[in-house]
Amino acid sequence: MKKTVGWLSALAMVLVLMLAGCSDSGKEGSTAEKGGDGKKAVKEGKDLTIAVADNFTTLDPHDTNDTLSNSAEKTMMEGLLGFDEKMNVVPLLAEEYEASDDATEFTFKLREGVKFHDGTPFNAEAVKVNFDRLADPDSGLKRHSLFALIQSTEVLSDYEVKFTLSEPFGAMINTFAHPAALIHSPKALEEYGKDVGKHPVGTGPFKFVEWKPSEGLKIEKNPDYWKKGYPKVDAITFKPVSENGSRIAMLQTGEADFIYPVPTEQVEGVNGKNGVEVDSEPSIVVRYMAMNTMKEPYNDVKVRQALNYAINKDAFLKVVMNGQGEKLDSVIAPDVQFYSQQELYEFDLEKAKELLKEAGVKEGLKAKLWGGNSSSTVKAMEFLQQQLAAVGITVEVVPMESGTLSDKIWSVQNPEDAELELYYGGWSPSTGDADWGIRPLVGGKEAFPPNSYNVSYYDNEEVNKLISAGLQTADENARADAYEKAQKLIWDDAPWVFLSADNTLAGKKNYLKGVYLLPDGSLSVSEAEIE
Amino acid sequence: MVDLKVSNKEAYYQQTLENTPSKTPFAEFWRKFKKQKLAFVSFFFVVFLILMAFIGPFITPYDITEPDYENVLSGPSAKHWAGTDAYGRDIFSRVLAGTQISLYVGLTSVLLGAIGGTFLGIVAGYYGKRIDSLIMRMCDVLLAFPGILLAIGIIAILGPGLGNVIIAVAIFSVPMFARIVRSSTLAVKSTLYIEATKSIGTRPKRIIWKHIFPGTVSSIIVYFTMRIGSAILTAASLSFLGLGAQPPSPEWGAMLSGGRDYLNIAPHVTIFPGIAIFVTVLAFNLLGDGLRDALDPKIKE
Amino acid sequence: MLRFLGKRLLQVIPILILVSIFIFLFVHMIPGDPARLVAGEDATIEDVELVRKELGLDKPITEQYVTYMKNLFRGDFGTSLKTNRSVSYEIGERFMPTFWLTVWSMLWAVAAGLLIGVISATKRNKWQDYLGMFGAVSGLSLPSFWLGLMLIQLFAVTLGWLPSGGMDSWKSYILPAFTLGTGVAAVVARFTRSSLMDVLKEDYIRTGRSKGLNERRITWGHGLRNAMIPVVTMTGLQFGFLLGGSVVIESVFSWPGLGKLLIDSVAYRDYPVIQGEMLIFALEFILINLVVDLLYGILNPQIRYE
Question: How far apart are CA A21 and CA B157, in angstroms?
Fold first, then answer.
């Protein structure tokens, strides 16, 4: 009997050591390489593999609502305008543009001599076909709403086109730069109709080869690309790899040359080892905890401010974001247009407790915190739970699977009936404009669920006025002024606990240049180059 | 499915009924069970685990929810035997306290599944015909239904939380229990002994409770023990998919799932709860094997 | 025999109808609005309604059910809400990867399981038995996602011998097939052991022994053949389970199979794909059960099909 026990425990020990061994040796292996100050990885050939977190849903930009599919589309198609790496609007297929002062008329002068992959010439007529498609409510396109304001598209000449809006919309230039406004070859649209999402034909640096939803997307160099000297790689394969650890492993083993996103936890572990570099850049993604301002006790601004003081944002960045982000100091991130910095709610437990006392909130307040069920979201919610415990608020964390969560939030018909108390979420305004960072989230009754994303049910008359003022004009200064005031008001009303602005995190082999993430989290590969 | 072994089993049961040894059944069982060395050791380990489940939460060296942000992800040391997690909490304490949760999930879910499955199995086996084929086809459907979808559905409908995880895991166990109990029921039912009881006019309810159910108990116990392990694993998989216990609960699967993002830089965060799951499930499985060998009348030395 | 086969095949139809009704109700009971989920993260209510109309989800549920069943009888599984491709295409695309992974996992698992089981049964309560059973049960006791992640860490990242995921060459099969097979190997080993132990006690084996037949021939020839029935049942069941695709393993190894498709479809409440997949699973399961029953006859000619 004794013998068996001894034998068994010995076996268990061996097993433990074996398991510990595999991870330890993993560590040693990489430190050895780290010692050499990050040796240069070597790449043969000019074919890239990029591992991404999910499957693409479609390759029709007009019908796409996820940044990931947009990234794939941008390799093959281009819009009139685009964003540079700082989210500034830059001309692409348009050379110049002009907006009327009342933000209703927009005229573009187009680049000449550009051809689609199928040989069709790019011209004003092609632009019209695309935007007529987008503006048509019967087309059933997911991005119709961004362009629903377009009343008419006129061909002024072969290379000049004018858009007229039904009402002023000051943020329209950014909308034209949005990936939803990428331009299909008119011939492909005619040929494939709704199926154009499986046969993308554009003017971009890469041509479509093959897309199997499960295995990934293959694209190849467009030899006739209008920008001379580009692209500098021959082909790219995108592979969907949803498990974070597996994606990282692919980069380490060289199965992938570029991966994104890199989970914040892994940055330290992989950066500078195995020839891997992690690029960490500010994004326009904001993290916040919304409080339902129609519900007790969060209808009291003191309570909302108290919660802002109660959360240690430095600790949030360190523990939850692993240092990959900045403290959020407005309702939008610094790279969003018309951002204006506010004075932080510095972590102050005493002040938080005092404010709660003033508001008449007793020790032992119970609250439910809703959010998604990914491991990073759960981690953030658990952190918030710990922080709020220090001011006597008992938080129940309720992670929900995406479908359930969206049902809970958006099936609410009367704002008064909303069950939601606290909600942890993030937002990335894909147009890069202040309007899309503010209006859907805190834009008054219009934005209450189920209409939009105002889950804090925040409704401030003055803010609403400023938001519409920002849209009434194309004058940059007037817009900046309106958004500056709105941001200040929102900050003081604190419908959210303002947490952080994320960094975009991409991992790459150190021979790779010119592949980067934009602040909106979309990918740019047109300048990809292997050293 | 064709009932193959019925005739064989009938013979065995007759044999056992005839050759009932002079010793009490329990003594006989214990004598056999002691011979199963792996199972015997596992038995003590399971007893130890159950003990831990009760006292574990009270003897943790650290508070299991209290964060220490200055001390996150530190490796095993004299102060923290199993290191600390992403919030600086002591992993050893959490693993210790988590014993209760994992055993609770494992035991209650299988218990619920066993109750449901046994009921269905006995009814199907005893009444036969239409009822039998209805119940068994339902079980087939349930078996063909991927457990994960079922779990997602159930948790989506009922909401997150440990209670609903238990229900989801319990439903996985129902069809297998039903199948096993049904075949034991058929075996017992066809013995002459039951035929005799029926012929003297005993009511079905009484026959089921007094005669058939006891005859199925040994197979239930065996499968019950084996099933606990897989229930704990299923609960862990649900945590992996983000459908498990709510934070800050130190459920092992949740700890494992939360730590998987740190596999490169802090493997200890996953290794210790992983070992805890492994050893626990192993113990239950080995115990189940041993019980089967000891309870099965067919196996003689 | 043929009558048996015909009867069993006829039974498939009501089961499939039952399954389809059950599935339809079940997936519609799960909270979540596919229009909202398909419309995406920053969709406005107008977008959502547009999508709802486009997908035909604005029609009453009974009408949706009738349409679904009508199409089903014509062999049309419908169109994916998320990708706008036909469900048959989506499933067809993922079936083979799952199928081959299942086949390879089963092959090594059954081989290893049989070997361990036979050794354990013949060396009962000796160290070979303990080691074999301990090893087998260990395989059954590991959380598979954890094992998978650990194997990737060891063989792909640290040693660089094998790819970490995807399905590019034969090498890609090794890690996922190993991970997926461990549980099956354990089950097969346990079943073989106990079943063989039963058989080795039977009279005809004793007779064989007393006649002086070679021990190895007794075990492998007569014993195993008769011990195979429960093993075949279990293996068939496991095969059925694996063919459904393992959500967890396919996620860990980014395997483009049915399990991954299922979890993605559930996330989007992609009703037609979920329903289509479930029907395929049910069908596979029933067919495997049938094959298992037929195998009984081959293993033991005494069995008659009722």
Answer: 42
For domain A282-503, the CATH architecture is Roll (3.10)
Which among A248, A376, A378 has the least Cβ separation from residue B247?
A: A378
C114-147 exposure pattern, b = at least 16 Cβ within 10 A, e = fewer: bebbbbbbbeeeeeebbbbbbbbbbbbbbbbbbb
Dihedral Cα C122, C128, C130, C133, nearest 10 deg: -70
pLDDT band at A70 (very low <50, low <70, confident <90, very high): very high
Res. A403 pLDDT band, cuts 50 70 90: confident
What stretch of H or E contains C232? Answer: helix C224-243
CB contact under 8 A, C198 and B285: no
Q: Which residues of chain C have pLDDT under 70?
A: 1, 203-205, 221, 245, 300-306
* Interchain contact, B261 vs A20, CB within 8 Å: no
Average of per-residue pLDDT values in chain A: 89
Nearest C-alpha neighbor of C84 from the set A60, A401, A182, A75: A60
A234: tokens are 């021959």
Min CA distance, B278 vs chain C (Å)?
Answer: 5
Residue C34 phi/psi, 5-degree rounding, is -60, -35
Would you say A135 and A181 are in contact if contact means Cβ atoms under 8 Å apart? no
Indicate the pLDDT class of residue A390, thresholds 50, 70 and 90.
very high
Q: What is the pTM of this model?
A: 0.86
* A33-53+205-275+510-531 and A282-503: identical CATH topology: no
Q: Are A203 and A117 in contact (CB under 8 A)?
A: yes
Burial grade of A85 (CB within 10 A; 0-12, 13-18, 19 or more): middle
- Return the biggest CA–CA distance within chain B: 77
Distance CA B256, CA B240 (A): 8
Q: Residue B59 in contact with residue B28, Cβ under 8 Å?
A: no
| Distances from the Cα of C114 to the Cα of A375, B128, C122, C127, C176, angstroms | 39, 35, 12, 18, 21
Count contacts between B and C (CB, < 8 Å). Answer: 136
> CA-to-CA distance for A182 and A480, rounded, in angstroms?
27
A120-169 pLDDT per residue, tens: 999 999 999 999 999 998 888 888 888 999 999 999 999 999 999 999 99
Question: How far apart, in Å, are the Cα atoms of A265 and each of A23, A24, B67?
Answer: 16, 18, 18
ipTM of this complex prediction, to 2 decimal places = 0.82
Least confident of A178-187, A204-213, C118-127: C118-127
Give me A284's structure tokens.
């326009």
Where are chain A's structural domains?
33-53+205-275+510-531, 282-503
Tens-digit pLDDT profile for residues B109-127: 999 999 999 999 989 888 8
Instruction: List C residues 190-249 in contact with A (Cβ-Cβ < 8 A).
Output: none
Q: What is the DSSP letter of B84?
A: B
- Second-level CATH architecture of A33-53+205-275+510-531: 3-Layer(aba) Sandwich (3.40)
Q: Give the tens place of pLDDT for each residue, A321-336.
A: 999 999 999 999 999 9
